[in-house]
What we know:
mainly alpha
Amino acid sequence: LLDMDRLEEAEAAYQAALTYDPEDWEAWGNLGLACLKRGRQAEALKAFKRALTLRPEAGKIGEIVRDLER
């Protein structure tokens, strides 16, 4: 859905996935991307930070967090 720019649907799908597995770092990262693409940087940053907490070695997410915090 993200790749198809169906951002609202993508965001809802990742939120739903996280209700079943709140430790899913990939869903947190994808939620961050959906929020970022929708112009909601604060929400994106929160989601990316959660993904990074769950998977510290996720380098690309770390780069995104650093860019957003500038």
